[in-house]
Amino acid sequence: QVQLVESGGGLVQAGGSLRLSCAASGRTFNSYVMGWFRQAPGKEREFVGAVTWSAGSTYYADSVKGRFTISRDNAKNTMYLQMNSLKPDDTAVYYCAADSRPRGGTYYYRVLSEYDYWGQGTQVTVSS
Question: 104 pLDDT exceeds 90?
């Protein structure tokens, strides 16, 4: 059974930075796609970015491109989300997710229903 545990959330001022971590356990993740999603109050959960575990290729939502960076440490089975130049609009619960049977095509990396494992989420609050 795959387990995902996020950490690193908190309160930060606009323009500041945070780094989220997602510790994964239970499987070998070489064939997986790992993603970050977020959900603000009253809004639907949305794609933030994703990384192919084996190759380390990354993909981002337009809203975070150039500000957020995804990386992973294969030895630690941990994925990171470095968030810079944070804005109040980035306030949300951030979730990491794992797609154990990714389809071909980067379109699917953005689709919530493609991910079969989810973490519990970590709150990020950006004050103005």
Answer: no
